[in-house]
Amino acid sequence: MAKKRVVRKKAAARKPVAKKKPVAKKKPVARKKPVAKQKPAARKAPTAKAPARTIAPRPAAVLSAPVAKPVVPVPDPLAPLGAHVSTQGGAALAPARGDDIGATGIQVFTKVPNQWKEKDVSAAEAAAFRAAMAASGQRWVTSHDSYLINLASPDSTLRARSLESFTLELRRCNTLGLDALVSHPGNYLDDRASGLARNADAITAALEAAPGPTRLCLELTAGQGTVLGSTFEEMAALLARIPAALQHRLGVCLDTCHVFAAGYDLVGDYDGVWARFGDVIGFERLGVLHLNDSVGACGSRKDRHALIGEGLLGREPFRRIMTDRRLAAVPKMLETPKGDDAVSNDRRMLTLLRGFAAAG
């Protein structure tokens, strides 16, 4: 009997140990609590709101309705009027692009403007371009030279490279039969008078090395940094340094944004600005006008173009330009922002300018 009791006692002693097993089972329950707290579904509200972003997309993502191609009178009573157009695919495609925006004159690049890499114009390419011009409504064409060129640089290596590039640009223009080449005066960097002399010497060398019909039109600048040619007086001084035998190949390009940014108030003193231009440079020098509104204020020296009527110049100076008899025969080119496509803004701006002229 005693043995049996001992056995029973041992069994009884072991029973509590067996009953402790449910405690071990509670551990997973304790581990599940953090999972319950991390319910991501409750925090997915921003995802549910995502479709709301498509209700009001950014203006840049909205494409406006195409602007109809302007109707150009035949014959056109205005001087050549147009814009800068692309030569992608070949120069011969540029005249048709001018037609597509309602232009009668165009500005192009004969090479990639922000690279030193040069190119030659073959006889076949020149013939194709001339044929395309003859088949189009374009009556006048100019090139704009490379942004890298600095004929006024005190650095002999950069100046030599610039002179080579500028001379090759003139040769391409002559080969294609372009009417003009627009070029910015250089940056003097060290001394203004020395820079002016270097600039004039390089222009002279290039004109002598590349004879031809293309007229060089030096563009008045906004006056940022050490750039030359932001005043009528300095431009006149630069022109005066070119030898007399080359003077007939020289002209000036007046950019409305540039001269306004340089301090010539075309808004408050339109007549005074043009009177000064006539006295210092002369209207006979004016080979082309760049018609651009300005993001910067008068005298800001900021070369930032805006659509006509949408900058600080506003519409009035352009209305007056389009009805100014002194400027009637001067080719006029847009360099305003292109927008979402390559045609709509140009079409709209050219229609606006023609409307100014028609209203007289």
Summarize the structure in short.
The chain is an alpha/beta fold and 360 residues long. It contains 13 helices and ten strands.
Q: How many domains is the backbone divided into? A: 1
Count of DSSP strands: 10
How do the helices and strands follow one another from N- to C-terminus? Answer: HHHHEHEHEHEHEHEHHEEEHEH
Q: Tell me about the largest β-sheet.
A: 8 strands, parallel, barrel
Report helical residue fraction. 40-55%
**For the record, what is the CATH homologous superfamily label?**
Divalent-metal-dependent TIM barrel enzymes
What's the N-to-C terminus distance?
Answer: 134 Å
Spatial strand arrangement across the major sheet: 1-2-3-4-5-6-7-10
Question: What is the CATH top level name?
Answer: Alpha Beta
| Amount of beta strand | 5-15%
Poorly predicted ranges (pLDDT <50, ≥5 residues)? 1-63
- Evaluate the radius of gyration: 35 Å
By CATH, the topology is TIM Barrel
User: Mind telling me which CATH architecture this is?
Assistant: Alpha-Beta Barrel
Helix segment tally: 13
The shape is globular
Summing up helix and strand content along with how strands pair, one would put the structural category as alpha/beta
- Average pLDDT works out at 87
Structural summary, described in words:
It is a single chain. The chain is 41% helix and 11% strand. It is α/β, with parallel strands linked by helices and 360 residues long. The protein has a single domain, classed as Divalent-metal-dependent TIM barrel enzymes (TIM Barrel), CATH 3.20.20. It has an 8-stranded parallel beta barrel. The protein has a two-stranded antiparallel ribbon with strand order 8-9. Helix 7 (156-176) packs parallel to helix 8 (192-209) and helix 12 crosses helix 13 (344-359). It is globular, with a radius of gyration of 35 Å.
